[in-house]
Structures are given as structure tokens and as C-alpha cells.
Write a structure and sequence with these properties.
heterodimer, A: 115 residues, 11 strands, B: 111 residues, mainly beta, three-stranded antiparallel sheet
């Protein structure tokens, strides 16, 4: 099992360009998450999907959209990139769909720079 | 609103010395606390959770509800413990179990 995979690993964009970050998991998990990691601020939740077909905003959703394409895949789209979106983006997944605890498993991250 | 505070951005100790990484939280409900670790060039991974009350790689953490703290401790630090450590909180009643992370502490264990 590859666990949680993310593509691309690195990306440089110019202000105003758009792109989609891809995330996939092969663990048959129900819940998936997108975080951004910034120096001195830890990880902040952008969007999450508690199950296939549902998505909800997290702490910092502005400037982003998501799609839960199927149970395996959860993509994050930047429609018009801004320098403030320069960050490392992490995808995570969790087996459960409800309140019962399951560990979140993280992908390797995508390092995005917006010039 | 829930909040996790890690007051130390950087922490350096010598090999064999005790180490304590501080974590304080604010939350009105019934939280579940975790420690995650990120070693250099590796992905973020769970180190331990307060409910399990176990020791992982020699690390322990006790939830102190009175002081709203969940400090991570190890009696004898090793060089391989050098990493970024994040304290995180999850709302047990939340349907999606979102995690709220602290800002992290970079631990360096010196030889």
C-alpha cells in the first residue's frame, strides 16, 4: 500500500495562475483532509470531506476549492494563485466517517511557491 | 473556539538529558489530544494520543485537565529524536474529527 500520495511534489506558479493539487489514498478511508503548513503557524485545515460526495470548509478555505472525485481522491484547486498561498500542502485521510476516533494518515506534502 | 499553544518554537537539549515539550490547549468540550512528529524529509506521523496512555519511543504525555496541558516528556533524549513536534486537539463530538494543530516545536538533540 502506498498510503496517501500527493502530486506534484513541488510547483512554482505565477500570481493569477491556477492549478490543482491531487491527493489519493489506497486505504479505503472515508474521510479526507487538506491542510497548509506555514512557518510558525503549524498546520491549518483548509477543507475536509467526511465521506464521498460531501465537502466542508475548514479554518482557512478562502481562495481554494475542493472536489471529492470518488472515495480515493480529493483534489484541491487554486483558481487564481496569490503569493499568500505559498505554503506546503498536506493531504490526510482517516478510516472513519463519524465521531469515532481513527488516526489521520498524512501524505508527503506539496511545496507550492507563488511568485 | 479551540486553540493549541506550543510556546517554544525551538528547543535544544544534549543527548541523555531529559526533554519536555510544552503544549497548552483551550477548549470547552471534551477534547482528545495528540502528539504528531515530523522527522526530516518524512511525512507527519502520529506519535501518541492521550487516551491510549502509552509510551512510544520513550515519550509519554499526560493530559492535565486542570492546567489544560498535554506536555510531551522523555527522560533521556536521543539524537534520533530530533524532529518537529506538533501538539494537536480533536473534538470528540465532531463528525469529521478535524485536528487543530499547535505551531510546532523544533527539537534538536545535540551530541
Amino acid at each position: 500500500n502506498a498510503g496517501v500520495t500527493q502530486t506534484p511534489k513541488f510547483q512554482v506558479l505565477k500570481t493569477g495562475q491556477s492549478m490543482t493539487l491531487q491527493c489519493a489514498q489506497d486505504m479505503n478511508h472515508n474521510s479526507m483532509y487538506w491542510y497548509r503548513q506555514d512557518p510558525g503557524m503549524g498546520l491549518r485545515l483548509i477543507y475536509y470531506s467526511a465521506s464521498e460526495g460531501t465537502t466542508d470548509k475548514g479554518e482557512v478555505p478562502n481562495g481554494y476549492n475542493v472536489s471529492r472525485l470518488n472515495k480515493r481522491e480529493f483534489s484541491l484547486r487554486l483558481e487564481s494563485a496569490a503569493p499568500s498561498q505559498t505554503s506546503v500542502y498536506f493531504c490526510a485521510s482517516r478510516k472513519g466517517a463519524g465521531a469515532a476516533y481513527n488516526e489521520q494518515f498524512f501524505g508527503p506534502g506539496t511545496r507550492l511557491t507563488v511568485l | 473556539a479551540q486553540r493549541v499553544t506550543q510556546p517554544e518554537k525551538l528547543l535544544s537539549v544534549f543527548k541523555g538529558a531529559p526533554v519536555e515539550l510544552k503544549c497548552n490547549y483551550s477548549y470547552s468540550g471534551s477534547p482528545e489530544l495528540f502528539w504528531y512528529v515530523q522527522y526530516s524529509r518524512q511525512r507527519l506521523q502520529l506519535l501518541l494520543r492521550h487516551i491510549s496512555r502509552e509510551s512510544i519511543k520513550g515519550f509519554t504525555a499526560d493530559l492535565n485537565k486542570g492546567e489544560t496541558s498535554f506536555h510531551l516528556k522523555k527522560p533521556f533524549a536521543q539524537e534520533e529524536d530530533s524532529a518537529m513536534y506538533y501538539c494537536a486537539l480533536s473534538d470528540r463530538s465532531g463528525s469529521a474529527r478535524q485536528l487543530t494543530f499547535g505551531s510546532g516545536t523544533q527539537l534538536t538533540v545535540l551530541p
